[in-house]
Amino acid sequence: MSHPPNRPPKIVGYNPYDVTYTRPSGTNGPLGEPHRGNTILVFGILGILLCPIFGLVAWTMAQEDLPKINSGRMDPAGRGTTHAGMICGIISSLLLIFQLAIGLCFLLAIFSGR
Q1: What's the pTM?
Q2: Count of alpha carbons within 13 angstroms of residue 7, beta-carbon side
């Protein structure tokens, strides 16, 4: 099938603005669950900036959602934000561990009498 040289070939049935997704197994219909990527990313950022508990929640939520996204049971559009939120949650958790270690060192220094 030839097309004019200055126009891209027309892809029949493709709509870049279509927001419906189909399951990878080939069955028709929308995916079962919407992604929670934005929520996970916000929790991850809040974990870094305000309270590390939010980071732990983001990491846990991402661990639940990424396997669902990979298996096709959840909207794949949220994979990037979910992964970014998980990374922020991991960083937040590492900062929490570091803060607890520093706090423990100060407590030991205070109560050891040095």
Answers
A1: 0.69
A2: 6
